[in-house]
Please model this.
Amino acid sequence: MNGSRQRLKIRIANSSGFCFGVKRAVNLAEEAVEKGRKVYALGPIIHNPQEVERLKKKRIKILADINKIESGFIVLRTHGIPLNIHKKLIKNKNISIIDATCPFVKRAQIIIKQLSTGINFKNKIVIIVGEKIHPEVVALMSYGKSGKCVVVENEMEARNFKGHGDLNIVSQTTQAPENFENIVEILKKQHKVKVHNTICKATFDRQRSAEKLAKSVDLMIVIGGKNSGNTTRLAQICSTNTNTYHIETVNGIKEKWLKNIGSVGLTAGASTPDWIIKEVEKKIKEISV
Ligand code: SF4
Model:
């Protein structure tokens, strides 16, 4: 046998896959099922279709509407839910709440609530830097005072912002730090601002380690739901550094990608479970042998 053929090197990003908040949410839901409880989730617990399917098989039912549940346990997902829905659930004595809102998201909710109810809030506006239609931001908005809480998505919106008064600026937990900082700098030119940085490090860490790995391998495979914003962002970052493919599962791998290369890097979004990453790694090993 010709010994000159080198084995394909597989490297996994230091920081990849389930983050603390997602791990906690999945564990809480599974523990409740194991205790024999009737468990519901308001919308998918995480942005990963395969993991949502696995949880469904464990009898965790996904609901789009709280009025469809008469009794049982309801898991609140990591990104939180609007305050009015939370209050409605609390009032229903037949429903028990398993609050899986990530503590980092909860912190942002508490900060917004405090900024919107303190004695000095009157002439101040709370700015949330984030995506208007993202469930986390929709929920965060509900903790602010109507008319005194505004979402700014990008630098153009920051430049066009016409509000009066001082600003308290918070961020969606998964915001890119550069976007947040640029928006703060623009708003600072016209207003007195106080910054409350509520960006979660998990997203940032995954992005930085994916970027580092992408710079040192021939190919990057990014694993995670196509509906997951943070996985898509990882794929974008990697693709600016090396040849990159975004797959949801092991079935997405094409053998031809691995031909004539020496190294492949793997990374995965915060909502991608370990078992999917392991399946992909195993398949690559099989192909390379
Ligand atoms: S990304 Fe951060 S804020 Fe979001 S669930 Fe994970 S740990 Fe929590």
Summary: The longest helix spans residues 20-34. The longest strand covers residues 124-129. The chain has a mean pLDDT of 91.
